[in-house]
Amino acid sequence: MPLPTNPLQMVHLGPRKKRPRQMGASMVCPPHDIKFQDLALYILEKKMGTTRRAFLMELARRKGFRVEDELSDSITHIVAENNSGSEVLEWLQGQNLKASSQLELLDVSWLIESMAAGRPVETTGKHQLVKRDYSASPNPELQKTPPLVIKKISQYACQRRTTLNNCNQIFTDAFEVLAENYEFRENEVFCLAFMRAASVLKSLPFTIISMKDTEGIPCLEDKVKCVIEEIIEDGESSEVKAVLNDERYQSFKLFTSVFGVGLKTSEKWFRMGYRTLNKIKLDKTLKFTPMQKAGFLYYEDLVSCVTRAEAEAVCMLVKEAVWAFLPEAFVTMTGGFRRGKKIGHDVDFLITSPGSTDEDEEQLLPKVINLWERKRVDSGKCSQQEGKTWKAIRVDLVMCPYERRAFALLGWTGSRFERDLRRYATHERKMILDNHALYDKTKKIFLKAESEEEIFAHLGLDYIEPWERNA
Ligand code: UTP
Ligand code: MG
User: Fold this and answer.
1) I want to staple 134 with a disulfide (CB 3.0 to 4.6 A). Which of 98, 146, 239, 356 is the partner?
2) Mutation choice for ligand 1 from 195, 396, 434, CB with most ligand atoms inside 8 A
3) What is the position in ligand 1's atom list of the atom closest to the CA of 348?
4) 251, 244 in Cβ contact below 8 A?
5) Which residues, 6+ apart, have CB-to-CB distance to 113 below 8 Å?
6) Residue of the CA atom closest to atom 24 of ligand 1
7) Active site residue 434
8) Quick one: DSSP state of residue 222?
9) Residue numbers in the chain where pLDDT is lower than 70
10) Which residues fall within 8 angstroms of residue 384, CB to CB, at 6 or more apart?
11) Which residue blocks in 185-289 are alpha helix, DSSP H?
């Protein structure tokens, strides 16, 4: 019978030893009773050191955990110390494992808490070096064992899976402020650089904790990396702080929060010296568009986010109205809510009906608006604001021909993802994609599609679910 190789294990065996240890090709059968059969732990030596690893292995075995000496496909949990998610992923990549989809990559804090509790504690975000929160997935299998993606990260959002579980919010929030400020200053190049950087970081399954973690990640220009470095070192970015305190940024942010107000109008009001909405509303010389009038009138309602419950209620109203004219129509909630967002700034709908004529399609939206307008007048709700029992909500209604519905659905489900899908089609496939169609420039033909899956297939892309398109 071969002897245990680890001297520490021999020292600690003592009277609890029940039977001699057997050594297989890749694992040691521990002498302690295994209480938790479903778990097989591997403790990573990298950055932890041999002595501490051996100590933790022995301790965990005594507490009834199955700890294996070597990494194999039967391992369920990898425990590491002083390693970032990206470091563990990089190491794992070189390990030649067949299946990594069941693996949990955890910080040593999970093991320590588990040993203190005398049982494996639930793995939460704070333990997970690589987060795989697919709880938004409608697929129950994926909710349990989401794939551990260890692939080169693409520069295109349409080749990344981006859920709402953002491990790098501290960075992406900062980038979004900077991107918005560049947008207000009409600096498209820098705006895009920070938007792309935010988008790529949102797709990472780990949190960036050192500059080393940024290696191999596309779309991180020097300007972006400087911001990351400052946040890692100081916990915040001085550039972001300056922007948040900047008068022009604050004014543009305020002005564009009014429905119907864009950059041009904001610029004009800012140049005129306005800094508050109240003064603007009182200026009789200013002319407002019908959208801006509505924006001021329902300002409080429109700046407060739409909840999913409100979106569902609106959906019922839309369906009811649409079906009054086209009983066969399909009404689908698109936009952020289709991507699983819990709140939104509006509610987007795609309407399509098999067998509808061009005329039906052209007339549907005016008919629906008319119906609502009549109902509003009849109910006397008009624009009365005192003690009101209703809320104004922005609703985007899109009607499309039935054979275009897959393209429209893909387009209106949106996020940055959609823009990169078009960029990908143009640059990588010589195709033109928009909300209506997909055109193959080489073959000079329009490619038909009955579903989003077919469009991805035409583009040679893996299908990405709507809730993975939060780029
Ligand atoms: P939204 O602006 O409603 O964004 O446009 P959103 O993703 O739903 O987010 P919130 O929660 O409302 O803020 C939805 C999608 O519709 C497409 C875009 O792809 C966008 O992501 N869209 C929007 C167009 O294709 N054309 C437009 O003119 C407007
Ligand atoms: Mg929306």
Assistant:
1) 146
2) 396
3) 3
4) no
5) 121, 127
6) 412
7) no
8) H
9) 1-30, 99-101, 132-151, 381-385
10) none
11) 188-202, 222-234, 238-245, 247-256, 263-271, 277-282
Tell me how many degrees the CA angle 389-394-395 measures, rounded to the nearest 5: 115
Measured from CB, residues less than 6 Å from any atom of ligand 1 are 335-336, 341, 344-346, 348, 411-412, 414-415, 418, 435
Please list, in sequence order, all residues whose beta carbon lies within 8 angstroms of the beta carbon of residue 285, skipping any fewer than 6 positions away: none
Q: Specify the residue for token string 């959906």.
A: 315
* Closest atom of ligand 1 to CA, residue 344: 11
Nearest CA to ligand 1 atom 11: 344
Three-state DSSP class for residue 423: helix
Q: How far apart (Å, rounded) are the C-alpha atoms in residues 369 and 318?
A: 10
End-to-end alpha carbon distance in the chain: 56
d(CA 216, CA 236): 23
CA neighbor of 413 nearest in space, from 352, 314, 338, 471: 338
Q: Beta partners for 106?
A: 79, 128
The best mutation among 345, 417, 422, 470 to test binding of ligand 1, ranked by most ligand atoms within 8 Å of the C-beta, falls on 345
* C-alpha of residue 335 to centroid of ligand 2, in Å: 4
CA quadruple 425, 429, 430, 433: dihedral, nearest 10 = -20
- 110: CA distance to ligand 2 center in Å? 39
Element (H, E) at 452: helix 452-458
Active site residue 69: no
- pLDDT score of 25: 43
Is residue 395 within 8 Å of 314, Cβ to Cβ?
yes
Task: Tell me the three state secondary structure of residue 139.
Answer: coil
The pLDDT value recorded for residue 130 is 84
Provide the edge-to-edge strand list for the sheet that holds 395-399. 330-333, 347-352, 395-399
Residues with CB under 5 A from ligand 2 (ion): 335-336, 344, 346, 348
Q: Which domains does the chain have, with CATH numbers?
A: 1-133+151-244 (3.40.50.10190), 247-303 (1.10.150.20), 306-378+390-399 (3.30.460.10), 405-468 (3.30.210.10)
- Could you give the 3-state DSSP secondary structure of residue 315? helix
d(CA 157, CA 139): 22
Phi, psi of 466 (to 5 degrees): -55, -40
- Per-residue pLDDT, 51: 95
Determine the residue of 306, 348, 433 to mutate for testing ligand 1's pocket, defined as the one with the most ligand atoms within 8 A of the Cβ atom.
348
Q: Which candidate in 133, 301, 346, 440 is catalytic?
A: 346
Q: Which residue bears the tokens 């509808």?
A: 356
Structural contact between residues 415 and 166, judged by C-beta atoms closer than 8 angstroms: no
